[in-house]
Design brief:
alpha/beta, two-stranded antiparallel ribbon, about 10% strand, disordered N terminus, disordered C terminus
Length: about 575
């Protein structure tokens, strides 16, 4: 037990992650539980570290939530990312003003379960990827607004089914409707201000029912159709209880299929056809998918949505927004990072720390409770990274492919850039290569708009032949990536307050000063994406096993070690510290 709970004698990144996981596994974070003491000091260090990591690549503002007055189980420093400052000129900048956002949040927070309002957490190509809980039902709304109505037998939609309504009931119905119009109206204003168009609902229920009462609702069953102007996606995904089966199967997700025939499961999968045409997925088979395939396909869908050509944002939510929601938010953050599209200056240990601390811990995931019940959705998230390393999960794949001419592959374009790298004013006489910067790390560019004009088929063939025999024909590699990384030294210190932006945006370093200089490129290849995600997964497994540990399943008659524990012993080099 003592060995499993000790901090590893490793580098500062490993030690910081271990301290975070230990704190996470001992107590649930609550903003309202601030104050003094050693525990509070540890939380403050975690919060400061998150702000520092956000500040590496972004200008941001902070919405104060010091005592949980905005939301009791949201971060005490709610970060609004405003602009990626990793490149000299970034066309993608949020138009959201923190003052107006804070006002809309205060007005709208009652609309969502537990007051967990729509909160932007990722900025990608100027789009806000948001998280929240589902819509509050009538019971929670009336309870929080002072109405003594929770046991009256009504519900927010039940009135529509009643045939004989008395005068007294009619008055209650009008009050009910007015209350929902008001609070959900504010919620809709917040969504529109954040330019959210797509709402992805992970609930397997239309409404959450407890003790015979509808305690939550959802946009898809709002009888007044207040959310009709949004694109609603019902993508039902098993709740945290299902992940006990994952743990009981020796942490094996392959072949683990959710039972869709349970009585409470009444939300079918529903996705507009326009969003599924390019994915080559048979969505009618979703009830036969195992946990791996279901998670993969949902992630592909989310990446496809945020990679669309419009400027619309995305909201992801489940019921309370602290189990399934951080699972997909974290996978999105890590996937986009692995492509070099967000948080591009962060190392694997740093992006891992940020997503564990901010997306899970500070947004109120109840790890202590989940571990006590064996519902290990948190562990599943990071172990699942091994299933999304291929290019089919890359957000840059479609951007690159759609602009490349059919006669050239992406690798050949990279080789062309390598060959002509010595010139800052011209390229090969046979070709003209136009580049457009994309929001990535400092000094980071991707070939999102490539215009290649060959002199003809013979020129193309000759170029390919010369590249094949040239020692300079080297594919983009991790060594090249590290060479192109902008040093973090010299970055201005992050400064934030309750309503002011961090002010380091004018201090960041830029590569080159000539407007004609061809910028150094950081094109993340499929193999590079895989290695980056594997580094994150390996770091998580090592730190998790030394701090929290896994609960081993009963041994088989042969006495063989469980599959995942065996991975630890062989792959991470641990001896006996992976069990509690």
């Amino acid at each position: 037990m003592a060995a499993a709970r000790g901090c590893p004698p490793a580098g500062s990144g490993d030690r910081a992650l271990a301290e975070l996981l230990l704190e996470f596994s001992r107590a649930q974070y609550r903003a309202k539980d601030g104050g003094g003491g050693a525990a509070a000091a540890k939380v403050e260090r975690i919060e400061r570290r998150c702000l520092e990591l956000f500040g590496r690549d972004y200008r941001y503002s902070v919405i104060p939530n010091a005592h949980g007055e905005v939301c009791a189980h949201y971060p005490r420093h709610i970060v609004l990312l405003e602009r990626d400052v990793g490149v000299g000129r970034d066309p993608f900048e949020s138009t959201v003003q923190v003052g107006k956002l804070q006002d809309l949040i205060n007005r709208s927070k009652m609309a969502r379960c537990r007051g967990r309002f729509v909160c932007p957490v990722i900025l990608y190509k100027g789009k806000h990827i948001c998280r929240s809980a589902t819509l509050a039902g009538w019971g929670e709304l009336y309870g929080r607004t002072g109405y003594n109505y929770i046991f009256s037998g009504g519900s927010d939609d039940a009135w529509a089914d009643a045939e004989d309504i008395s005068e007294e009931d009619s008055a209650l119905r009008n009050a009910d409707s007015q209350l929902f119009d008001k609070v959900r109206g504010h919620d809709i204003k917040l969504l529109r201000y954040l330019s959210v168009r797509y709402i992805c609902d992970l609930m397997v229920e239309n409404k959450k029912v407890k003790f015979g009462l509808n305690v939550t609702s959802s946009e898809k069953v709002d009888k007044a159709q207040r959310y009709a102007d949004f694109t609603l996606l019902s993508i039902p995904y098993p709740g945290c209880e299902f992940f006990k089966e994952y743990k009981d199967r020796d942490y094996t997700a392959e072949g683990l299929i959710f039972n869709w025939k349970q009585d409470y499961v009444d939300a079918p999968l529903s996705i507009p056809v326009s969003l599924t045409q390019s994915l080559n997925i048979d969505w009618s088979e979703y009830q036969s998918w195992d946990l791996v395939q279901q998670t993969q396909n949902y992630l592909k869908l989310l990446i496809s949505i945020i990679n669309s050509d419009d400027d619309s944002g995305l909201l992801v939510h489940c019921i309370s927004g602290w189990d399934r929601t951080p699972l997909f938010i974290s996978l999105l953050r890590l996937s986009l990072w692995a492509d070099g599209l967000i948080h591009a200056s962060l190392e694997p240990s740093e992006i891992l720390y940020l997503t564990v601390a901010y997306d899970w811990f500070l947004f109120g995931h109840m790890l202590v409770d989940r571990l006590s019940k064996g519902e290990e959705i948190f562990f599943f998230c990071f172990n699942f990274l091994k299933h999304i390393t291929s290019e089919e999960f890359s957000a840059v794949k479609s951007q690159r492919r759609k602009s490349l001419p059919p006669s050239f592959t992406l690798e050949e374009i990279c080789m062309l850039k390598q060959r002509d790298r010595g010139s800052t004013t011209s390229l090969s006489s046979d070709f003209s290569l136009g580049m457009e910067s994309s929001p990535g790390a400092a000094g980071s560019f991707t070939y999102e708009a490539v215009e290649l004009m060959p002199a003809g088929a013979q020129a193309q063939a000759a170029w390919r032949k010369s590249c094949a025999s040239s020692p300079q024909a080297v594919l983009w590699s991790r060594a090249q990536q590290s060479e192109d990384r902008l040093p973090s030294a010299g970055m201005g210190e992050v400064k934030s307050s309750s309503s002011s932006s961090s002010t380091h945006s004018d201090n960041f370093l830029r590569i080159g000063s000539s407007p004609l200089e061809v910028p150094r490129s950081r094109l993340v290849s499929a193999s590079d994406r895989e290695s980056r995600l594997e580094e994150v997964r390996s770091a998580f497994l090592a730190s998790y096993s030394r701090t929290i540990g896994l609960k081993a399943v009963p041994p088989s008659p042969s006495g063989a070690i469980g599959g995942l524990l065996e991975q630890f012993v062989r792959g991470v080099g641990l001896r006996g510290s992976s069990t509690l």
